[in-house]
Amino acid sequence: MPSISANTTANTAVSYLNANSSAESTAIEEISSGQDTTNAASDPAGLAISTGMNSDVAILQQAATNVTNGESVLNTASGALTNMSDVMTRMQSLAAEAQSGSSSTASLDDLNAEFQSLLAEVSNIANQTTFNGETLLTGTTYASGATFLVGDTSSDTITVTITAASTAIGALSSLSVSTVSDASSAMTALTTAINDISTYQSSVGAQLEQLEYTGSVVNTSITNLQSASSAITSVDISAEETTYTNEETLTSAAVTAVSDANMMQSELLKVLQ
Hints:
The chain has 273 residues and is mostly helical. The chain has helices spanning 8-33, 44-98, 105-128, 141-144, 166-170, 180-233, 237-271, and strands spanning 130-131, 134-135, 146-149, 157-160. It folds into two domains: 44-233, CATH 1.20.1330.10; 237-273. 74% of the residues lie in helices and 4% in strands. The strands form two sheets. The protein has a two-stranded antiparallel ribbon with strand order 1-2. A two-stranded antiparallel sheet has the order 3-4. β3 and β4 form a beta hairpin. α1 (8-33) packs antiparallel against α7 (237-271) and α2 (44-98) packs antiparallel against α3 (105-128). The longest helix is centred in the first third of the chain and has 55 residues, at 44-98. The protein is rod-shaped and about 125 Å long.
């Protein structure tokens, strides 16, 4: 029943107006942001899950960078070992040439000059191959093992170990091909050193393969987590556009209803005049 002391009709219309207007604002916010969870109240559980996923993604993205760094370390070491092996192979050729039986003393001296130059180059490669300031083939950091985080927990690690080439190089330090006898000894020592370098390369290659597989897994995990997080937080534009249109219509209707209710109150007051 209409009452002049309490405009119940208008109050009810205002209540609906506020609710519809709030829903309309929420729809606009979600459409404009592209997010279904614009605040904790909209989907507390979804927001918590998404936040956890985003944290994992951030860690995994750094892990992917760590994997890339590890691969770079191993690729650098592998390239240096290959160069060392190539130089030693040339040194073997010189040692073989020195044992031809027809080489003169002058020829042996020339062969030995090149041999000594190549020997110095082997040492240079080993001592000057570095990554981020750390020597890879003669230092202690990678010889004892450097650990890389490659997952989203502290236990997800891979240790990169590069055997120091110092022993192989040290065995060559006093070699010479200035005589047939020296050349024969040099060839034997070089064969052993080349085999050692080949073993080092094999170890580096195996670790590199492991990191490459791990990197693939990490990148897949990042993609899947981002997709899952997006499914939770991203707004369904079509559905939200429909919601917005409905709420906009209801808000307009509520505005009209409030106006009509206030006019009804005015009409009741005229009865008393």
